Amino acid sequence: MIHLVCGVDEAGRGPLAGPVYAAAVILNPAQPIEGLADSKKLPERKREYLALEIRERALAFGIAWASVEEIDSINILQATLLAMRRAVEALSVQPNEALIDGNRCPLLAMPARAIIRGDATEPAISAASILAKTARDAEMRCIHEAFPQYALDRHKGYDTALHRAALRLHGPAFFHRKSFAPVRELLASWKNEA
């Protein structure tokens, strides 16, 4: 019997806006993918190319997210673990084991192992990192189309000077994480001024 392992990683824990995404990938040993690495270390064009390769060659993959409302309600760590669980549950093939990037594992129906910096050392986690990152970036570009004043296509919701300037000028939108300090403090200062 083949021992199937899925790699699991997230994208978007740190931003001030947008959902947190996660992906789970079971690679096909018969169709190796060259160039897998931590998505943060890859140029955008290489990530997008590899995401297509992963979708075509993997035995199975699942992509899921936790919403801004869930992040604000249960906190970013719990929302990340929830997104990871949803990604594993979205797999069309049940793995025997899950390898999770980081130091915490979501509650899963199979054994799971947390691997710190697993996205740099385990190909299946690298693949999950790439799928989660490219899916989240695509979502942020979609939001940007409707709300270009926040320049989400440039910073993808992360805490940059450009994003903070847009927040001060336009105020937080529904896709901002109100539980995150910069957004929470801005909302509080506006309330005090009112």
Overall description:
With 194 residues, this protein is of the alpha/beta class. It has two domains: 5-136, Nucleotidyltransferase, domain 5 (2-Layer Sandwich); 146-185, no CATH class. Helix content is 46%, strand content 15%. It has a five-stranded mixed β-sheet, with helices on both faces. Helix 1 crosses helix 5. The longest helix has 24 residues, at 123-146. The chain is globular. The chain starts with a strand and ends with a helix.
Question: Can you summarize this structure?
Answer:
The protein has 194 residues and is α/β, with parallel strands linked by helices.
Rounded to an integer, what's the Rg over CA atoms? 17 Å
Shape: globular
- What top-tier CATH class of the largest domain fits best? Alpha Beta
Mean pLDDT: 95
Q: How far is the first residue's CA from the last residue's CA?
A: 66 Å
Give the count of helical stretches.
Answer: 8
Total DSSP E strands? 5
Runs with pLDDT <50, length 5+? none
Our count of domains comes out at 2
CATH fold field value of the largest domain: Nucleotidyltransferase, domain 5
- CATH architecture of the largest domain, by name, is 2-Layer Sandwich
Helicity level, as a percent range?
40-55%
Strand percentage lies at: 15-25%
Please summarize the sheet with the most strands: 5 strands, mixed
What is the helix/strand order? EEHEHHEEHHHHH
State the strand order across the main sheet. Answer: 3-2-1-4-5
Class by helix and strand content? alpha/beta
Q: Write the CATH homologous superfamily of the largest domain.
A: Ribonuclease H-like superfamily/Ribonuclease H
